[in-house]
Design a protein that fits this description.
Blueprint: E1 5-7, H1 11-19, E2 24-25, H2 27-36, H3 41-47, H4 57-69, H5 73-89, E3 100-103, E4 109-112, H6 113-130, H7 133-137, H8 141-151, H9 153-156, H10 165-183, H11 194-206, H12 211-226, H13 229-241, H14 244-254, H15 266-272, H16 274-287, E5 291-296, E6 300-302, E7 305-307, E8 312-316, H17 317-321, H18 324-327, H19 338-341, H20 364-381, E9 382-386, E10 419-424
Parallel strand pairs: 1-8
Antiparallel strand pairs: 2-5, 3-4, 4-10, 5-8, 6-7, 9-10
Helix pairs in contact: 4-11, 5-6, 5-20, 6-13, 8-10, 10-12, 13-20
Length: 431
């Protein structure tokens, strides 16, 4: 509150910020975020002590995260489990619970698309990263996460507890869940992913033994891996269901990715579906609101302007994503063919859906795969029909909530959803 900010909106100046790593520091931003989650100054000093050569613990943690999430053996192992979980969750019998608004067995189920995407994606990620043990100690973890995720922006804006009681309550329950998880014997948590085990070992090596300090670190990781993908899936299907021609085009392109036994070739989707890739990038361009941040620690010059120490830099990348000189005269509109018509856009310095430079989101590879998996399986296995409003009118396309400074993929305005009636079309496995 009351602090001075520099706002940078040109791609040239953003590149200059990335290059000036001595005057413009990202570490204080991370310290501030971790402090919001309850880490003490003592713990933070340990995390940012450069006793590992020129690197501190957070540098090593980020390197481990890239090792897990970038293409390679560790991503293959995680991806196999994660995508397998999505596959299982999209069996007809698994479409159940609060997401189902009405059901008539084989004749169809009426579902909330928002809740369906959230349940499948977050549950699948939870089991892939933390194993089943987390649910043994925290069966309500998903409900608490969704409540926190919806209001988490209030944490970064330093809302006092009396002004955001639900958010703080959900945060406390999430952190308590991971404290209980860490208290379990390690032999009961062997199905956790490599990165979770690496972070836990790193916490121990750092000498952080208090659960009040270790648990928030895992809760931060949990939110990082879960906050965006389910919203991307929601917008992908929202646009597809409201545009029959677009839906048909995507269905036709992805059809060869399915094998005779019903299994899906992710490699085919990644390498042979240019329209799907363009559609995905356009969803990111339209629905994502990423923001880059740095702290000026030494006087420097960017774009001919002198930046003074102690001020923060904000880089709202979404403004660049709507630049008509880069993305065309229809930059303010949704155009699923934009990136296939101009293949250079995906490498444009004006396109930063995952940030850039050393702080570029390492989860971008897995995010694409989980969204592809979910969307492809839903389209392949189910016939989907939009349900109109209560008065019998046409289904209304949901509005994005532009009022919340999410820093990531935006959700719909509260109360707006896509209601869909689904029927079995193709399914492998038990019903």
């Amino acid at each position: 509150m009351g602090e001075e900010l520099y706002v940078i909106t040109s791609p040239e100046d953003v590149l200059a910020v990335y290059k000036d790593t001595t005057s413009l520091d990202f570490d204080p931003i991370i310290r501030d975020i971790m402090a919001d989650f309850g880490l003490t100054r003592h713990t933070l000093d340990k995390m940012f002590d450069r006793k590992f050569g020129q690197k501190h613990w957070m540098d090593l943690c980020h390197a481990d995260f890239k090792l897990q999430m970038h293409p390679g053996e560790k991503l293959e192992v995680l991806q196999s489990t994660f995508l397998g979980n999505i596959d299982k969750s999209l069996q007809w019998s698994q479409v159940s619970g609060p997401m189902v608004l009405a059901s008539s067995n084989k004749n169809g189920k009426t579902v909330s698309l928002w809740k369906w995407c959230g349940q499948v994606l977050v549950d699948s990620a939870t089991r892939a990263f933390f194993g089943d043990a987390i649910y043994r100690v925290a069966p309500d973890l998903l409900a608490d996460f969704f409540l926190f995720d919806n209001e988490s922006w209030k944490l970064s804006y330093k809302y006092p507890r009396f002004a955001a009681p639900d958010m703080y309550k959900a945060k406390a329950k999430g952190e308590a869940a991971f404290a209980q998880y860490l208290a379990l014997p390690q032999e009961q948590r062997q199905d956790a992913s490599w990165i979770v085990k690496a972070i836990e070992q790193g916490i121990m090596d750092l000498g952080v033994e208090e659960s009040s300090q270790a648990a928030p670190m895992l809760f931060v990781l949990y939110r990082l891996i879960n906050t965006n993908a389910y919203k991307l899936c929601f917008w992908c299907l929202a646009y597809l269901l409201h545009d029959p021609a677009l839906l048909t085009s995507i269905e036709q392109e992805i059809a060869p990715a399915f094998q005779p036994d019903g299994s899906l070739s992710m490699l085919y989707l990644l390498e042979n579906c240019p329209f799907l890739a363009s559609f995905y990038e356009e969803i990111l361009r339209i629905a994502n609101d990423p923001i880059g941040t740095r702290l000026v620690v030494r006087e420097t010059t960017i774009g001919g302007k002198t930046l003074l120490p102690g001020r923060k830099i904000l880089m709202p990348y979404k403004l660049m994503h709507f630049d008509p000189t880069v993305f065309g005269d229809n930059a303010s509109e949704f155009d699923p063919r934009r990136f296939v018509n101009n293949k250079h856009l995906v490498r444009s310095t004006s396109y930063r859906p995952f940030g850039g430079a050393a702080t570029q989101c390492p989860g971008r590879f897995l995010a694409r795969r989980e969204v592809y998996m979910f969307v492809a399986l839903v389209l392949h296995r189910f016939d989907l029909t939009l349900v109109g409003n209560e008065s019998g009118g046409h289904a209304k396309f949901p509005n994005m909530d532009l009022t919340i400074p999410s820093g990531g993929v935006m959700g719909p305005i509260g109360g707006e959803d896509v209601i869909v009636k689904i029927k079995v079309k193709n399914e492998i496995g038990p019903e």
